[in-house]
Amino acid sequence: MFVFTSLVAIWTALLALPIASATGTVTPLADALFTAVSAICVTGLSTVDMATQWSLFGEIVILLGIQIGGVGVLTIASLLGLTVTRRLGLRQRLLVASDTNPNRTARGASESQAVGLGDIGGLLGAVAVSLLVIEAGLTLLITPRLMADGMDFWHALWNGFYLAASAFTNTGFVPLAGGLESYLGDYYLLTVLALGVFLGSIGFPVIFALYRYVVKGSPKRRHLGLHAKLTLATTLIFVILGWLLITSLEWNNPATLGAEPVGRTLFDAWYMSIMTRSGGLGIIDPSEMNGSTRLVLDMLMFVGGGSASTAGGIKVTTIAVLFLAAYAEARGYQDMQAFGRRIPTEVLRVAVSVLIWGATIVLISTTAIMHIAGTTLDETLFEVISAFGTCGLSTGLSEALPEPGKYILAATMWAGRVGTVTLAAAVAATSRSRLFRFPEERPIVG
């Protein structure tokens, strides 16, 4: 919490400098703070025009912010330490472990983890390599498309790298004037952006597990763990479910998908389903969607992406564990099970805490902004969940909010990115032993 807050303060000061704005003037504190939080928390919401507000210096500061926020502060620190000292001690391994899995802080946590302490060095290597390779690959795919639109090579390369970083870190900032409006129906560019968002949202532990599974090695190293299977399965379920719901609910809406050919309707709905879960690089204005569709988007944004990923939300594994617990209870099983593995009840304890924490943040922020700005529940809830889930989709409310509302929304982004992980770590670490137990008595539930 201290590190993230300090980074937000530094980035706010940098973005408030005259050199950071395109006009050479001081950016108002509320806008500088909001952009800094949005960058560090890889959200993508903005109160200014990202294509015209910032100078080259400002864009570089923002890009550094989304890279640090996307990869993880403790992981970045460990990578730098490994580069300098050429070794990775136990303290550094535990730091990275706690950055990727809050349950590591629990007393007596077993080594039946998604990534063992002995694999932390490999995970760090996977983080560095995937960041460089994936963003470089996305840049190489995007740059020629921008050049085909008339951009010179250097501008196309810079904007291509900006879009690649924004996609892989699931931020959603667009440096182009008019956003992605001029690329509606461009299957090539939008598919590349969707691929970048998907790879960033599944999480570095899953990328590392897939790498170990694909490359040659011992049968043990080729084993795909429960976390990777659960993340990939739940992610695909939510992508398909979102795709079907968006398609059906917007099929007859002439302002969105109703006026498009069938092929483009299906493609745009699939693209929005991926972006809604944290990407934020939208091509359809949410304010023109039906209220029922926005409610579906609210749920998808609240869930978000994979744990230890560049995505936000309460995470797909959290919701998966809750559904597995409900299924086990309905079938009368004592244990939660998935893919031939038993999930300990400590994981359910953390999942319930994260869900309640997230719902509480959304409720408080929505109530406060509605009272201050006099906005409706529908538009306020959408903006707040987008901020909490670090998604970045917007109905335009962020720019129209008064300064107190911007500060509340910025605090919501901070809590959504930092608070859920911190709470999960705190819950996992608060296992106390007692020499006595109270008598048991069961309340009526349900």
From TrEMBL:
Q: How does it sit in the membrane?
A: Multi-pass membrane protein
InterPro entries in the record, alphabetically?
A: Cat_transpt
Claim: Ion transport is one of the keywords in the record: yes
Location(s) in or outside the cell: Cell membrane
Ranges that cross the membrane = 32-48, 60-84, 120-141, 153-175, 187-214, 226-246, 299-326, 347-373, 407-429
Keywords, comma-separated and alphabetical: Cell membrane, Ion transport, Membrane, Signal, Transmembrane, Transmembrane helix, Transport
Listed under GO cellular component are:
plasma membrane
Lineage top rank: taxon:
Bacteria
User: Carries keyword Transmembrane?
Assistant: yes
**Which terms in the Gene Ontology molecular function aspect does this entry carry?**
monoatomic cation transmembrane transporter activity
Question: Which GO biological-process labels does this protein carry?
Answer: metal ion transport
> Residues of the signal sequence?
1-22
PANTHER family reported in the protein's UniProt record: KTR SYSTEM POTASSIUM UPTAKE PROTEIN B, TRK SYSTEM POTASSIUM UPTAKE PROTEIN TRKG-RELATED
Q: What is this protein called?
A: Potassium transporter Trk
